[in-house]
Amino acid sequence: MKISVIDRDGNKNLLEGDNNSTLMEVIRDQGLDIEAACGGCCACATCHVYINDKWLDKLNPKDDEEESMLDQAFDVKKNSRLSCQIELSDELDGLELELASE
Amino acid sequence: MIEKTDVIIIGAGPVGLFAIFELGLLNISCHIIDNLDKPGGQCAELYPEKPIYDIPSRISITGQELADELVAQAKPFKPVYHLSQQVEKITKLESNEWLVETSINKKIQSRCLVIAGGAGSFVPRKIPLKNIDHLEEKNIFYAIRDKFNFRGSKLLIAGGGDSALDWTNELSKIADVTLIHRRKEFKAAPDSVSKMLKLEKEKIINFSIGQIQNIEELKNDKIKVIVKNDEKINNYEVDFLLPFFGLKMELGPIADWGLKLDENLIKVDTKKFETSEPSIFAIGDINTYPGKLKLILSGFHEAALMAQECFKYCFPNKKNVFRYTTSSKDLQKKLNS
Asked: Which residues from B are below 8 Å from A43, CB to CB?
């Protein structure tokens, strides 16, 4: 599966995803600049991304914990998500998103 | 005044705390320094309520429980804690000892340094806008040292956690406060939230939903904070902005100490966990070596081996007799005291 990520310089990166990983892990392990300080336990807000609107409904929904953590992020939008909370699946092949500012 | 000890541990996370114990077994005394106001590091600050499942013999333990038990385990060795301060400078003395100076000008001297800094110090998360750095400590404050500096002024507080709500409630007594938060739900303690809502109802404070979009400097020493709520823009002309967006981790001054680094991690050998600088050790998530796994249990192992080497520096003329806690009467006496 492929994931398309726009980085902070506006460049489009095509990443190889797999359905055993979270979105954060794929972004981090393929070398894009995402801090993910807490390692994926929804305890910081440093893996903040904006999901392309047409993909929003296909993701597992946000829970209260993720919504609370987003309080620490800057410029939170309707399509804001913490990428560590998004489990990848084959249905998400082609997922498009953008990294939020640091 | 300079305080003296055998070893200074930088970072009071789980690995730094266990290092006190391992050093203590070898009669090595410690001082431990951390930028947080409590020991426990990430375990206590980031995920106190989350269960950890890979601590040997503990089927499940929360971050806070682990921190508490490590503090209790280290207690017989009487460590000295220096909290709410960051190590700013280290200097090698002629005696080959180290002099450590902290952000509140405390000076401590030791034979060895152990860096157990994890992913760095916790510092307030700043607003990622360009060109506002010069307003920091002038119009924008991420931490409050003296609340009376804000007496009689117009304040905008941003955030929905405990710091934002507690300061809103507290500063409402001496200043004109507006609180903004991105939604109407708050993460802060329910008691603080109801206090704030009561103050709002009584029109003592203002509360608005919104997020900071931009900040402009005005000529009258004030700032204009542009706040967006969906498509609606509100401008606030205030004396001070107090953003409380939680804490983040930063390597900080450690990067400038001349140690060999690999992508911001400190290189160590796997026999002694010593850095490129003799008598400075690095253990836990902050170090790197071939095969490194960032696990608390790896840090515990590293602490035990580091302590063996520290012994040689601290007691060059003594022989280190390896003893188990199960059999050594000496150690048992110390641990049960």
From this structure: 46-47, 50
